[in-house]
Every structure is written in structure tokens, then in C-alpha cells.
Design a protein that fits this description.
mainly alpha
Amino acid sequence: MKLTPKERGDLRRLLKGTADDPTVQKMRLFTQHGSISTYRHCADVTRMCFWLNRRLHLGADERTLVRGAFLHDLYLYDWHDKDPSHKWHGFHHADKALENASGQFHLNRKEKQMIYCHMWPLNLTRVPKSREALILCVADKLCALRETFLYRNAGQKNKK
């Protein structure tokens, strides 16, 4: 998935104030899948959402789509730690991410819903209710698969 220079500029403008926020930058400290940081995972998912929306002419609101995508995993802990509170991470981290994102940013209804339901279909009752949320669910799973299998043993060089 390759973005044109214009698309990269558009995406940077849409993310200004979100991706560069100090709280969001803390996601660089935590590993997501394989050797990828949570920050990079969110950046990759955001790029994938943006690309899918533009290439497939899905008609999602771009600002909502990229903000919700970038904040979807703002839970700020390492789920790989043997902490008992991380045992059900796949089912509960969306709640923590939504709490953190709502405390840091003014989120619209769709952005909140995107974060809340991004683990569907694992969380069967949290069905996406907007095209933005559905795009995020698809992009998140595609990126997670790539990260888990491609970067499993790639070392820390991919954390940024």
C-alpha cells in the first residue's frame, strides 16, 4: 500500500495535533505485535485505513477515520507483561484506549465508537456501526497479521 506524496501530505495534515501529542508518543514505549511498537502499529493501521478509503472510494470522513484509527490502541501498557490485569487484553484494551483518548482529546461519536469496537469480531457484541469503524476493523486485522508474521523476529529496529 503506497501513498502518493500528496496523500502523505494530506494524512500528515489530518493527524496534526494527534500523532505528535506527547501522550500518543508514549505508545512508542510499548510493543504491539512482533517487534512493532504500538505507535508504529497505529500509524500503519491509520495509513491502511486512509489508503483503503481513498482507493476503494468508501466515502468515510477522513478526519474521523484517521483520528479514530491513530487512537484505537492508546491503552499505554505492555500487554506482553505477565501482569494478571493483561490476561484478557484482547477483550478489554479498547475500553482503556477509549478512556485515555477521551481524556486527552475531544472525540466525536464516530471516533469513540471506532475505538470501542475495533476488536470486532473478537468482541462479538461490539459491532461496528459506521463505515469508519468497519474500515478500522479490517485495517487493524490486516496490519496485525502482517506485523505478527513478518516482524516476529526482526528485532527492535522496527519499533519506531
